[in-house]
Amino acid sequence: MVIYPVCSSSKGNCIYIKSKETAILVDVGISFKALINSLSLAGLSEKNIKAIFITHEHSDHVSGLYSATKFLGVPVYSSKETLKALIIKDLIFKGTKLYEIDKKIANIFNLSVGAFRVFHDSADGVRFKIFDGEKKFSVCTDVGMPTVQLIETLKDSDFVLLESNYDVEMLKKGRYPFMLKKRIASSFGHLSNYDAAKVIDALIEKGVKKFLLGHLSQNNNLPQIALKTVVSYLLEKGKKFNEDYFLYVAPVRSIGKVFEI
Ligand SMILES: [Zn+2]
Ligand SMILES: [Zn+2]
Question: Residues with Cβ < 8 Å from 230, sequence gap 6 or more?
Answer without folding.
Answer: 164, 193, 196, 197, 200, 213, 247
